[in-house]
Amino acid sequence: MTDDQERYFIPSSYSRIVARELRLQERDLDRLLQGTGLPRRILLPGDETHLTAEQQVIVLRNARRMLDVPDFGLRLGQQLQPSAHGPLGYLALSSPDLITALRSLRDFLPMRIPFVQLELAFEGDWLDCSLTFKLAIEQEERRTLLECFALVIQSVVESVLGRELTNGQVELSYPRPAYYRYYADYVHSPIRFSQDSNRFRLPAELARTPNASGDADSYAHAQELCRRLLEQFPGSSLSMADQVRRLLLSQPGGSVTEADIARSLFVSRRTLARRLEQEGTGYRAVREEVLSELAMRHLQETDLTVEAIAALLGYHDTANFRRAFKRWFGIAPSRFRRSAL
Question: What angle do CA 202, 162, 218 make, to 5 degrees?
């Protein structure tokens, strides 16, 4: 097992979902866990064991061989409805709108599946949900996880929209598999293979779609629970971007600099920049993600004036905040607030 594989820990609940999908009997449980060194009890309800990344990948490999069907990843992904992700799922389901649900998934994914990283970005008419892996995974297991990823994003989006999403786009980096015709039975949007990245593209106009089942009290409770759980999670299991994001959220807006963040993480600014670059991002990008999300939440959830929000986020000049907000969302803060009512 490599050092990286030892850093990431995944709740045993996902292995129980795998076992249920295989419809295993007690006598078959050892076959699913072969090579992991794990006892059968981790597959029993209520167990709170955390698997290493290597153990989780072995479980997936064993399961694929046991079931021996080409659409194993798609079958498994279909089981990963929001409720399968514990507090994270409840947070997404109670979010006020689609973009908040997806940001909740991004921010708190480390406490459920920490060896993958979800990034959100607006690109023209699209909202891109991109996935990267933080460790090396063999091709078959990578494909299984990417199929699950596409269906996890789809299930969150469709839970908020209350309908099937047919006008998105799914881009996957691997070649079209021999069983590609199965995809239409699971994924409701068009799929393109052999792409440069792995992402689920949503029409940007859907981002602020209100969640019909959203509930402010439930959302606040779930968010607080997720934050407490994330604080308890081993810090080494968080990506550098996750750690920077958490530090920025814990400080008053504008009160810390990149140098301050680097010192808090016991690294130099150059090392911080290099590690963020390795994760496909940078300090400015993470900072703007945090600021844009906080700005959006203040406009949607409080009666603070635009000037007060600008000051709260560390902008000494409200005009600079207005320009930044328009760059993030394409409209002025006042217009955004009216459209959110």
Answer: 100
Could you tell me which of 158, 224, 206 has the C-alpha nearest to residue 186?
Answer: 158
Tokens of 183: 């995809």
- Residues sharing a CB contact under 8 Å with residue 3, sequence separation 6 or more, in sequence order: none
Which residues, at least 6 apart from 268, have a Cβ–Cβ distance to it below 8 Å? 262
Q: How many CB atoms lie within 10 A of CB 162?
A: 10
CB distance 91 to 85 below 8 Å: no
- Which domain does 19 fall in, by range? 3-67
pLDDT at 115: 81
Let me know whether 59 and 88 are in one domain. Answer: no
Domain total for the chain? 3
Global confidence as pTM: 0.69
| Long-range contacts of the stretch 189-194 (C-beta < 8 A, 24+) | 189/154, 189/165, 191/150
- From first CA to last CA, the distance across the chain in angstroms is 52
Q: Which residue has the tokens 């908040």?
A: 100
Q: Which two tokens stand for residue 176?
A: 């079209």
Q: Residue 231 contacts by C-beta under 8 Å, 6 or more apart in sequence?
A: none
pLDDT tens figures, 193-244: 999 999 999 999 999 999 988 888 888 877 787 777 666 655 555 678 877 8
Residue 74: inside a domain, yes or no? Answer: no
Residue 164 C-alpha from the chain's centroid: 20
Nearest residue to 297 (alpha-carbon basis) of 271, 329, 261, 274: 329
Asked whether 58 and 36 are in contact (CB, 8 A), the reply is: yes
